[in-house]
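Lab notebook, bench 4. We co-purified these components, and the gel suggests they stay together. Before we commit to crystallization screens, I want a quick structural picture of the whole thing.
Request: model the full complex, all chains together.
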Amino acid sequence: MSADGQHVEVAVIGAGSVGLAVAHYLVRNHGVSRIAIVDPRDPMSLTSAQSGENYRNWWPHPTMTAYTNDSIRLMEQIARETDNRISMTRRGYALLTRRSDPDDLIEDLYRGYAGQAEDLIRIHEGNGAHSAYKPALSANWEDAADGVDVLRDRSFIRQTFPAYAHDVATVLHIRRAGSISGQQLGQYMLETIKSAGGRLIRGEVVGIDGPAPFVLSVATKGEVVRLRAERIVNAAGPFVQNVAALLGEDLPVSSVYQQKIAFEDHEGAVPRNLPFSIDLDGQTLNWTEEEKAILADDPATVHLTKFIGGGIHCRPDGAEAGKWIKLGWAFNERASDPNEPEPTDEHFPDIVLRAASRLQPALGAYVGRLPRGAHHYGGYYTMAKENWPLIGPMTTPGAFVAGALSGFGTMAACATGLICAAWVMGTELPPYARMLSLDRYSDPAIMADLATLQSRGML
Ligand SMILES: Cc1cc2nc3c(=O)[nH]c(=O)nc-3n(C[C@H](O)[C@H](O)[C@H](O)COP(=O)(O)OP(=O)(O)OC[C@H]3O[C@@H](n4cnc5c(N)ncnc54)[C@H](O)[C@@H]3O)c2cc1C
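Here is the predicted assembly.
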């Protein structure tokens, strides 16, 4: 629809998971009905369409734990209200290592769950000590255990997870974790926004006159129309910087391209009841001497012959009777410009399969023989350096940002929407909200605390 001459209370720029969630909570919690979401693309079609759609409350800092716990609580509320239209499951995340004494990981657990660690963390070691461990027999989120089980007995791990390689020595089974349909969540939110009178305007915001009240220039097919808004929310995903620049602002974010593959597991390599499994140990990939020489010869591929950090992940996708599996490995650390063509790496499917077959040897059957119909896709982790989001006021009065959701924007969309809506309306915020806003950079205590983190919780 055309925007010309319209005047709304709030204009949300971007119809991905995050923009839709902000609009949803403006409608749901604050009764805002004069609201427009502006996007030239189909809703949920950019980064939000590339998500692995996993969620978890495991983080190395209690602020991120509280934030994602809130988001999971909000997703549960929607699952209940919609007869689980969002396909929420909960078999957990299994974080695996070959180290038998991963003290750093255990320390991170205690730090991340600070205040409730005694109740939530269960260490199972020694003969018979695992009798209290409850395997994730059901995918139903309402039946799932809470907290974290740390399994430290190799034979018990082997018995419980026979698909894993036998050298796995420790499993951290995060229980408040699983998958959802991010697309259904976005669709549900769009419907609630529209039924409350909200509008979706198909066009790109190419100019912003401000401060409030703002006049947005929106480029639609062949013309530029004006949209007046009392307040605006920048939820432009990888283009959050472009929109900030229209206000003469700069945000401390960069975008790093990450990839995944999905294919039909005809060999049944991955059990359908497997939790989302993440190999935390890095590795040097197992190339033949000839392959290694070719890769080492090219500056673009030489890094593939060196040690690469951990985080290879794999999970069954879709129905338990189905066959699809998803694999990913967010090892790229090089930032790129989202305005340029996507830096897809043709070697990625081979790399991730080789790496994943170290943990799940049966996947080795697919190395060099990826089934027909396999998908190779990717998108940007747009992120702040500490891997925390940016939610709250921008410098321009009346302008807000909900961005930098890196690899956690599906799971954290609901809490982000709720928090950003509260900032926009000037109502009560969760206690940790300031730490997730731009304000944190001017607080030396928060910065000092962040500097002590051993990990950023990236997966
Ligand atoms: C490979 C991969 C795997 C991931 N896996 C997970 C996962 O398992 N779990 C999880 O929680 N998260 C995951 N994520 C992260 C998650 O997908 C993102 O954090 C989330 O989708 C970001 O949503 P967004 O709304 O900010 O951005 P987007 O979905 O990119 O939406 C931004 C929208 O803004 C619009 N826009 C941009 N500029 C303008 C403009 N000037 N005017 C109007 N509109 C504009 C764009 O067209 C776009 O539609 C993954 C990400 C990737 C890349």
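The chain is about 25% helix and 25% strand. Worth comparing against the SEC data before the next meeting. The first helix runs from residue 17 to 30.
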